[in-house]
Amino acid sequence: MCEEFGNICRAVWNVALDQRRQYRRRGAWMNYVPQAAELADAKKEHLWLKAAPSHVLQQTLRDLDKACREHGTFKVCWRSKARWSPSFRFPAGNRVVVERLGRKWGQAKLPKLGWVRFRWSRPLGGEIRSATVSRKGRHWFVSFLVDDGLKTPERHAIPGTAVGIDRGVKAAAVTSDGDFHDRPFITDGETKRYRRLRQRLARAQKGSRNRRKTLDAMNQITGRVTDRRGDFCAQTATRIVTKNALVVLEDLRIKNMSASASGTIEAPGSRVAQKRGLNRAILDKGWHRLELTLTSAARYTGTRVVKVNPAYTSQRCSACGFVAENNRESQAVFRCKAAGCGHTAHADVNAAITIKHAAGQAVSACGDLGISQSAKQEPVSRATGRTPS
């Protein structure tokens, strides 16, 4: 039944998105209200639509309406049967009943699905607002949105504390305090097995049962990697926001940074293989997921998350503010080339301190990120604010 509900929601999404695009090509608009009315009429003609709860299909149209308003009608993706994992949401929390059966198991009563047993992983901790059922690999999951009644504290428990975070490809996150947060998300054995599965997938016939088995085996590996990355981001974010009232990040355009360098067939890009390796490293470290997790965890501690311009943060000296391209001698070594400075530190730690300074925490140099500052500018004394003679 869950598979059937997911397929119906996918069909409703694709038909509604196609309708919106046809309207936009004619210069007209289509939104949730008329589409919801047309959905009610379509259920009279197409009886298979009645298999799924009405409010689940209406929620699909609401999600599509929100996606089109935020990203644009022609940038919203279709839901492919082969690539999209089925999911649907029950928005009426008062129609969802949850009971605990024991230490490890519970059961939930969902509309049209009835009582469904699930693995009890944590207490709900509040009133249920909605329930989302989704499939990941071979398993189905249910997640509950609850109102825990908590409010964001007006002040952090340790006011006045701040930290800058530099995200990299060697270490996922390095703080201005000198802490390195990183862990491997995939083992060597899983890497070899995944490579063999990709070779097997290339030889499998499309639509065959062997191809489906190979994809399921690949999804098991990628699912474990995703879970480890999520666990790492959650633990790292909790530790950081608990100790700091201000967290400073670089305002990175991760989507642009991880874009392909292949270009077009007529004008292929340069160093495509090198750029492909960098893209994989950026996506593997979960930069965006860490940022989202920090923002979410900050609601419970009253921490402010600030993003600053990333220009020259890896080339600027955190001690004197001197900017030069050759300040960073290697991936890990930073040595200031300014006369009379010679500050030496780990390159990622120096960048994290510079990011912290950029948010107004003991601002160095000219008080900005040095976008217009010459690389040959003389170092500025932080104590007097003047250039030494």
Automatic annotation (TrEMBL):
Keyword Ribonucleoprotein: no
Probable transposase IS891/IS1136/IS1341 domain sequence ranges: 152-259
Origin organism lineage: Bacteria, Bacillati, Actinomycetota, Actinomycetes, Kitasatosporales
Family assignment from sequence similarity: In the C-terminal section; belongs to the transposase 35 family. In the N-terminal section; belongs to the transposase 2 family.
Signal peptide: none
Domain Cas12f1-like TNB: 287-355
Protein name: Transposase
Keywords, in A-Z order: DNA recombination, DNA-binding, Transposition
